[in-house]
Design brief:
The complex is a heterodimer of chains A (264) and B (257).
Chain A lengths: L1 H22 L1 H21 L5 H34 L2 H6 L4 H31 L8 H28 L1 H18 L14 H4 L3 H14 L4 H36 L7
Chain B lengths: L1 E12 L4 E12 L3 E5 L6 H8 L7 E6 L2 E2 L4 H5 L2 E4 L11 H12 L3 H14 L16 H13 L5 E5 L7 H17 L3 E6 L2 H7 L2 E6 L2 E6 L1 H8 L4 H9 L3 H7 L5
Parallel strand pairs in B: 3-8, 3-9, 6-7, 7-8
Antiparallel strand pairs in B: 1-2, 1-4, 4-5, 9-10
The chains are: A mainly alpha (264), B alpha/beta (257).
């Protein structure tokens, strides 16, 4: 009975967020248009360098789009609820925190995939991209496994708005910016200054992009990509429980210091 | 059976350098409507937050129907619900969308939730046609009625009402008060009501605690409190018991809640 309630609650988060998307439809259209145009402009940079480079850049734009949606939706779900003042009601409900966070993650995956597919459709239409050489099955596996590690990162980042709404959101954005800089989204990490390059090893996006480019540009099989996929899986398996434990500790801290209030 | 049992609760907030609650010690038997009156910042909301499992006391303990709020929060959460002074909702969503979300969290079937909340709202004079409008388009009074419906459709056996009528227009205030009064007569729900409206406390509550500076000064039935201090109204009871004017206490306590 409790399991059923927890599953229904998970759907509640999905349903609530979909209702919010519907109510903010105007903004959704604006952001989607911006993201499509953004991906196109990045793709156009590579036109003079040939189709392969266009694909290289487009994969960066799409993967980053997907991973950053996951990261944002999860980390900002807490900030959003604190701004609305509803977080006390969500935390007061008889559900496990895992259910709440899993519900946010589920929505983020569905939302991120829909956005990415839509952007891919328009980018392919405008830039005439071909995926003949791509190993789409391997790419999908890499994307799903990458999602796990970014969910883990999102859970860790969700702690920050729990501590302080505004400063937490600011810190989350800085964290995202650093990942964008060091992960080789639009360039190979070898072009980074020497002192910055070691940071790329700590970002799961580095491995996601490397594996996805291997699958989509070079048609590499899952067997060839296995070491990178395994590493991504290990990061996800490590970060998700770590994120949950850290979130739990942060919740206790927030309840000791009175940080759950709207103005906390 | 006691619905609430608080034993020597102390709470301070380091950052604000305030003592929010000091040596709070009281019990509320099942079925009682217990009022807490005190000026802004006297510690009322802090106490409600502790009972709602949203705040951990520094020392002391609180139980709800024998379940400790810190050690068994999930058991407590299944028995309670709360209305706070600010109707906290996703303001872009409609009343129904907000309530449907709450229904999912509490495992109440959607159809049952809709029927029950509409019945509760109807009894408070909430127009049914506005049920599907975004909450940001509803008046403060209407939003508070939706908050009350949200707290009741989950069938709590302990209802925590934290200044539910503060800031409402006179008509909405009366409708909410009448609803609480009806609830008290028709059910055996236990209610903890915080307010700074003396008349409201006197009409709705079986017993009243006066809180100031984070501590209970007196706890008794309204009539007995007035007799004890030899005055005719609760505001005079407050002044006699604290030696301060109401407004003066509010200034002293700024930032405590």
């Amino acid at each position: 009975m409790r399991v059923k309630t927890e599953i229904v609650s998970t759907l509640g988060f999905l349903e609530r967020n979909l209702s919010l998307v519907r109510r903010y439809l105007g903004w959704e259209i604006v952001f989607m248009t911006y993201n499509i145009v953004n991906a196109l402009t990045i793709g156009f940079i590579g036109v003079t360098q040939g189709k392969q480079f266009v694909m290289y850049l487009t994969i960066g734009a799409l993967v980053w789009g997907f991973l950053s949606v996951l990261f944002h939706e999860i980390s900002e779900s807490v900030a959003w609820e604190r701004w609305e003042g509803t977080i006390e009601y969500t935390f007061m409900a008889p559900i496990h925190r895992f259910t709440q966070l899993f519900g946010s993650c589920l929505f983020a995956i569905v939302y991120g995939l829909i956005r990415t597919v839509l952007i891919l459709f328009f980018v392919a239409l405008f830039l005439g991209l071909s995926l003949k050489q791509a190993n789409l099955g391997a790419a999908l596996v890499v994307l799903v496994v990458s999602g796990l590690s970014f969910i883990g990162l999102g859970l860790v980042a969700a702690i920050l708005p729990l501590m302080s709404t505004e400063k937490g959101a600011q810190a989350t954005h800085i964290m995202e910016a650093v990942i964008l800089l060091v992960s080789g989204v639009y360039y190979d990490v070898s072009v980074l200054p020497k002192w910055l390059q070691p940071l790329s090893a700590f970002s799961p996006a580095t491995y996601s992009l490397r594996a996805l480019r291997g699958a989509l540009l070079e048609g590499k099989s899952l067997t060839e990509l296995w070491p990178t996929v395994l590493l991504l899986l290990a990061i996800g398996v490590l970060l998700i429980p770590l994120g949950l434990i850290a979130f739990n500790q942060a919740e206790i801290y927030a309840k000791r210091t009175g940080k759950l209030k709207r103005n906390g | 059976m006691n619905a609430i049992h608080c034993r020597n609760i102390n709470k301070h907030f380091k950052q604000k350098k305030v003592i929010a609650l000091r040596e709070i010690d009281f019990t509320v038997p099942k079925g009682e409507t217990f009022g807490i009156i005190g000026p802004n910042g006297s510690g009322k909301s802090t106490l409600v937050r502790i009972l709602s499992t949203l705040l951990i006391p520094d020392t002391g303990s609180a139980t709800v129907f024998t379940h400790d709020v810190v050690r068994s929060p999930m058991a407590v959460r299944r028995m309670i619900n709360r209305v706070s002074v600010d109707a906290a909702f996703f303001k872009k969503l409609s009343a129904w969308e907000n309530l449907r979300y709450a229904a999912r969290l509490y495992g109440v079937p959607k159809k049952q939730a809709r029927e029950k909340t509409l019945a509760i709202l109807d009894s408070m004079g909430f127009p049914k046609k506005r049920f599907d409008e975004p909450l940001e388009e509803l008046s403060r009074g209407m939003q508070q009625k939706v908050a009350i419906a949200r707290s009741l459709f989950t069938s709590p056996i302990l209802l925590l009402l934290d200044e539910p009528t503060t800031g409402l227009d006179p008509r909405s205030k009366k409708e909410v008060q009448d609803f609480i009064f009806g609830l008290k007569r028709q059910t055996d729900i236990t209610v903890l009501l915080t307010t700074h409206d003396m008349a409201e406390a006197e009409t709705l509550c079986d017993r009243i605690a006066i809180i100031n500076g984070g501590g209970f000064i007196a706890v008794d039935k309204a009539e007995r409190l007035k007799d004890r201090f030899g005055v005719n109204d609760l505001e005079a009871v407050f002044m006699r018991s604290t030696g301060k004017e109401w407004e003066e206490s509010e200034q002293d306590a700024e930032g405590r809640d």
